[in-house]
Amino acid sequence: MKPFVQQDEGRKALRFSIRDVQSRMRLEDPDALDLEYSRTMMGFLLFRPEPQCIVMVGLGGGSLAKFCHRHLPGSCIEVVEINPHVLALRDEFQVPPDDARLRVVQGDGALFVRERGAGCDVLLVDGFDYDGQPPALSSQAFYDDCFDLLDDGGVMVVNLSSQEAQHELFVDRIRRSFFDEMLRVDSADGANCVVFACKGQPLASAQARLRHLPKSLTARAVAQLQPSFNRVRAALAAGQR
After folding, report:
1. pLDDT reported for residue 209
2. Nearest to residue 34, comparing CAs of 52, 58, 14, 4?
């Protein structure tokens, strides 16, 4: 399915249909995270503030890749995107070219996760198509492979649509694959649910470290992320699983 770009009111959006926004960029601040769910996904920094390797399944408009590339200079970032039409819009959304820290490839995300091998601190799964959540990126086997990809103490973050009929089934699959070490954070508008899952590290043990953030984050970036970080902290304190 070929996406299209819509621009208005100082923003540029990537869409598969007029109903749904896949990604959105502020023209005056291209590296900012304009959508709430993307800011919430960055909550992984509360658990892994200094990741060495970040793998992303789904490029979209490149919001997460751009933010991590700019603000986490100690991280290597690998991005896999299955849709060549999405990749063709890379320059449109000002995604930087590949370099020593960033690599964007076209490929099947599920296959990439299965075949890559371990050695990843953070795995971000944000893969949608015209029909919503792709079956290949929401199966029990896929989440099992995600668990295997992560190093001990690694964190997977998955963006799920709360409107998806099988939403609760997907959450239960994550719970099984990660032995119940997971946390769900619902968006303020109820449209999305971001799930954090940890490998080999109880989420409860992270409570004491939740104030430690990377020194590389600018004050502006921290201010942008702080409300979402507070939501993650509140969800952890409330035991939202």
Report:
1. 57
2. 14
Structural domain containing residue 75 = 4-203+212-235
- pLDDT tens column, 25-50: 999 999 999 999 999 999 999 999 99
| Cα(63)–Cα(23) distance, integer angstroms | 7
The predicted structure's pLDDT at residue 204: 67
Is the CB of residue 49 less than 8 Å from the CB of residue 43?
no
Confidence at residue 98, expressed as pLDDT on a 0 to 100 scale: 97
Question: Is the torsion defined by CA of 22, 127, 124, 197 positive or negative?
Answer: positive
Q: Which residue is it, tokens 């099988």?
A: 166
pLDDT of 54 reads 98
CATH code for the domain in which residue 66 is found: 3.40.50.150
Question: Which is nearest to 54 in space by CA: 182, 149, 181?
Answer: 149
Q: Which regions of the chain are under pLDDT 50?
A: 208
Question: 25 in a domain, yes or no?
Answer: yes
Residue 81 in any domain: the answer is: yes
Residues 6+ away with beta carbon under 8 Å from 71: 214, 216, 217, 218, 221
240 inside domain? no
